[in-house]
Amino acid sequence: MKYLLAINFYQGGPNFHYDNFKIGLFYAITRNRAIVTLPFANHYGHRDESFFWSFDDTFERGKLAQALPVITPEQFHTLCNGSVEVMLMNPYTERNRKSFSVYEHAYKKTRSNLKEVTNISMPSFEDMPESAEESQRRYLNINKVKCLGMFKPLDFWRIMKMEVTHRRKRQIIDLIDKNLKRTPSLRHRVDAILYHLCQGRPFLSMHWRNRTGEVCQMQLRNAWKLDCNRLLTYISMASKKVVRGVEQIMEENNLSCVYVAHPSYSWEIVELMKAKIPNVYTSEDILALDIPEVANLNENYLLSLVEQEIVYRGVIFIASLTTNWSEFVARERAAEGKKTLFLNEVPEVPKHLHKLI
User: Fold this and answer.
1) End-to-end distance of the chain based on CA atoms, in angstroms?
2) Is the pLDDT of residue 305 over 60?
3) Nearest alpha-carbon partner for 44 in 318, 316, 263
4) CATH number of the domain encompassing residue 330
5) N or C end of the chain: which has fewer CB within 10 A?
């Protein structure tokens, strides 16, 4: 048996890490390798809480093992003498070239943390391929390596998906999406929560992430380049049309309950919905429940997983168009034939709103 350690700790939040892990799963399935179930890192905005969360806090190991062989970091350490033999790296993508120092810092910090958390050693950064051609050669000539690592699997997705037919790619993606499931304990929490929120009734679910509001209010990235006052006023006005579209969908599908997952800076949509629609619930309602199943949900990492399980269960899920959080659930639902509408598919939504949300 050969093994793959697919790792991305420091760029993006947990769902970006999950997506990288899924690409690692894709590679492992096509190469008949066992996958190592590494921990995941918390969102950069919540790293004052627990930083690393184990695979078993996040996904169901036994379910994933139905798709491919799965081993723990401890087993990898034993089988591989505590070290990754070769690390696949691609610092020559367009994005990595533009921010090479960020790439280098992320690799070195990942190497340090992996050693600290799992006692597994990664090759030094100096082992980096010296050119894009060498990176590709290493990728193509790695089959005999027993204990393989892949840093930032997303960097290899373009070449990876070209190696199989479209049909086979779809089969593997569906296999992954059907078997990468949240833990039984999280699903049990959601059973209890939904009993209290929607009393077991069918419901509509929605994810709303106001990216422009995030950038403007938290002064992230290039906020200074944006006309924040104008954009936020436009989003506020357009959100009223979103509410009308949600009302229409609920009427057409005879639904009387809706759950809205949203970051703290996207609260306005909830206020607008509650003014027009009865039975609108959010994480605030979850945390107000006096039941044992909400214990420890003040940890954002766990609360986010609970909310993903909730919106996954909606009769219809309205997804944000450009977020890893929504995309993870949308793909999970697609693999099982559940209906998802992206924001630009909701009636009355202004044409360009999804580009700002």
Assistant:
1) 45
2) yes
3) 263
4) 3.40.50.11350
5) N
